[in-house]
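Q: Start with the shorter request: fold the first protein.
A: Done. Sequence, then structure:
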Amino acid sequence: QRVLGRSPRPAEVERSLAFLATQSDLLRESGTKPQRGSRPSDLARLEPSRRAAWADLALALLNCNEFVYVP
């Protein structure tokens, strides 16, 4: 909601959750670690691959046309 200024549609929630699960698995298998930096305490409790998947989702949301477009 904070990124796009509206509540997510049900399909967007489903796609985001699927992305997080798939990306987390891929990152875990490849041994990729999240980038260092400050982390909110909620994310600090997640395993590294899950934390990195959240960072990837945030990047994807910030790069979507709906976020970039300023009316």
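Q: Next, the second protein, separately.
A: Sequence, then structure:
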Amino acid sequence: IEGLESLDGATAFHAGTKTERPGTILTDGGRVLTVVSMADSVEGARQKVYANLPNIQFTNSFYRGDIAAVA
């Protein structure tokens, strides 16, 4: 997984990840990451999260575009 160190104003919680050597994070199936943020509003936090998602890259990655769209 590349780009986790470049998150700005967001935090990634790991679920389906593993390490094989220090400094290397690999996917391990399922829901790999949860990315969260805080702001003055739900919409502000949502914008921060979605602004950061293009920075996180790994093979066959995808994300839903409707999370927190209706609060």
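Q: Describe the second briefly.
A: The first strand starts at residue 11 and ends at 14. The chain has a mean pLDDT of 94.
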